[in-house]
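Sequence, structure tokens reproduced for absentees:
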Amino acid sequence: MVTRQAAARLAAQTVGPVLLPGEDGYDVECASYNLAVSHQPALVVGVAGVADVQAAVDFAAEQGLPVAMLATGHSALPTAGAVLINTRRMDGVIIDAEARTARVEAGVQWQQVVEAAGKHGLAPLNGASPSVGVVGYTLGGGLSPIGRTFGFAADQVRRVELVTADGRLRVATATEEPDLFWAVLGGKGNFGVVTALEFNLFPVSHIYGGGLFFTADRAAEVFNAWGRWTAGVPDEMNSSIALLQLPPLPEVPEPLRGQMVVHVRIAYVGAAEEGERLVAPLREIAPMLIDSVMEMPYTAIASIHADPPNPIPVQDRSGLLREFTPELVDAIVEHAGPDSGSPLVIFELRHLGGALERRPAAGNASDLQGAAFSLYAVGLGGPNEAEAIHAHLTRVLAAIAPWSTGRLFVNFLTAADAAPEQFAQAYLPETYQRLVAIKASYDPTNLFRATPDIAAA
């Protein structure tokens, strides 16, 4: 427990607010995109800059409390009893069009970068959701809708500025503190509070993208055809497929409203004519409810996945798959399809490979070695619905276990995967051991443990 006297002492050192449970503004500072998660830290600091971050880290170390970071709250974090650092006020974005780079502060969301870069005909390796925070996403590797073409977002980082457990502001690059640079890019928040990132942008102003929607009764046919199709596409073709259960709301297009549908998502980096040729076989699978695949400005890329813009209560699980087979499709349709009674609103597979398998020379802790597809499954509901949703998620994951690599993707980890022994599944054994060693060097007391935790050796 943090005393009011101690909190007041920290408040005198910071520009941003310092709040205890029950104080006005506390709940707002702790608010998350995932409404199923209730953050109840011992103290929350709404940092306004690097000096505030340093003061908060020093305070947590002095009090013997863990440090947690929050920008958008798309991920579930164990913040009980922690000093929560809310970085949302740190929202600066600088685009260097000539160098094709962006420098962003800790609280920036992806849509800010997409729009700023788009003014110069450039594109970042952003997330599918426009409201995902740049830093947390990138520290988990960052799987972009155009990742098969350009690799992980982490692969394009040039410079990381972060406050480590000793309260120092450090700069990490491929040549300056290279071990820390390697570990941060894939190790999530285990090594410090990142205050800014600098990363490469790409000369992409338009893509050929959008969605193909089919009725759910054709799910097996569409999934199997998509799986065969992915085997022959170039790296410039990025795609995913999902079973969606859409609510009966006015903002949902009428043909999809209140229905379970199959949604094939396309993001082709190249000429629209070639994209159209490549997508043609998918258009022939079955009659479509909606075909929105067309040439679009890159700034509209969020429309492809069309993730909900407003906070929602999410219960989710994930996995990585070695291969795609007709038997896998049978298991998916049986446990998540139209006759399964599934409570899931999204069951998604993303096609991996391409540039995601080509690791950069400097390297980082991100990799999906052995995985051809990622899996992400979501149910909507708070504590009252959580038990039923998680029971179904467990059954689905068990059904597709024969195709699993046994590993997880860091950015899709949930509260259920947050224990250190489960978090280790996100890495190759040699990668995890190197992370543990670097953690021991930079954070020997495990101050940054309110995250999927790499326990120091």
